[in-house]
Amino acid sequence: MLIIMMMQQETDRLWNTNYWRVMTANFAMSFAFYLLTPLLPLYLSENFGSTKDVIGLVLSGYTLTALLVRPFSGYLADSFPRKRVLLVSLLLYFLFFGTYLLASTLLLFAIVRTLHGAPFGASTVANSTMAIDVLPSSRRNEGIGYYGLSNNVATAIAPSIGIFVYRYTGSFDLLFWLAFAVAGVGFAVDVGIKPRERQVMKDRRALSFDRFFLTRGWLIALNMVCFGLCYGVLSNYLAIYGKEKLDITSGTGTYFMLLAFGLILSRLQGASALRKGRLTHNASEGIIISTIGYTLFILVPNEFGYYGSALLIGLGNGHMWPAFQNMIISVASNNERGTANSTLLTSWDLGMGLGVLFGGAIAEYFSYEAAFWAIVGIHVVGLLMYFLGTRGFFLQRRRT
């Protein structure tokens, strides 16, 4: 009996070597991404003289390409050896950072940035699905919540480091090299993953729509589009808005650190509820807190509202994201985990891409202030959608 109990404890061990590897790789991918994200609008403006709407158009290409690729990435992750799909995607994601250094014109940069979204979309789906594979089923809800911490820590560190490097060197090339190196580390770490053998899906529905999009979770996905749109506006236009409206020239790094601190705190706080399966509780709490955060950001145009919103949005998203991810996985069958992951990430990407376009257009013809007021309204729409529809939709359809 003692031996059986010891074997069970080993089987249920959350922090196994494979899990550490996917966490580290996710950190590296996120770090490389967020190192550049808050500074790219400035890069396009200073190096190419781009207008606000052109900046929005160029930057949206990355997200929209990831959006197009992710449904196919979920299908590939379910239908072929997952490690092979993961390593090919990560290798391309890593190599593409080097091509930024070769983009000498706005057109070339727009092409490179847009194409880079494809391996990003594929690798995030494959890596997060691998994380689910290496987690014991008894710790899955909790493990998915902790998995997001690697992204949250990167969100806290990377923008600050990027802004620090640029402030003291003035070199965007150095930032591109740094992102290239970190992404390479992520690829190297995942090479050593030794996943359990699994039977890949081989059926006649290979080209059916539900192999690329989890139709059972359509309302969960639609709800996530609203929240992704709001964050797309915030993350891409925060630095410019802070400089123009609030005269905060060096606060972007601090903002992202506070946001990430809120994310980390909420992940740790919400782990117990996730372990108990209280997904709708965490989602409800997160959506309400995030709505308050977005409202504070634009309603109180000073440093208190600016930095206070960062903490609240971080707390809210940290509760909401793992809850929604577990919800959509729970309405899918075991052999549809890649599709479920890609559906949720695709929805977030769609929202982010629309947010970049939406925010840039409103800022160009009205103001950044108008763009941030608009996302408060959209977030409220997302809140109402969840409480009036999505929560009941999930409870009726969940399998596990």
Which SSEs are present, and which pair or pack?
Layout: H1 2-11, H2 17-36, H3 40-48, H4 52-79, H5 82-99, H6 106-134, H7 140-169, H8 172-191, H9 218-245, H10 252-275, H11 279-299, H12 303-330, H13 337-365, H14 368-397
Helix pairs in contact: 2-6, 2-7, 2-8, 3-4, 4-5, 4-6, 4-13, 5-6, 5-8, 6-13, 7-10, 7-12, 9-12, 9-13, 9-14, 10-12, 11-12, 11-14, 12-13, 13-14
Report on the structure:
The N terminus is likely disordered. Helix content is 81%, strand content 0%. The chain has 400 residues and is mainly α.
Short description:
With 400 residues, this protein is mainly α.
User: In angstroms, what is the radius of gyration?
Assistant: 20 Å
Class by helix and strand content?
mainly alpha
Strand content: under 5%
The overall strand count is: 0
How do the SSEs run, as a string of H and E? HHHHHHHHHHHHHH
Shape assignment:
globular
What are the salient characteristics of this protein?
single chain, 400 residues, mainly alpha, 14 helices
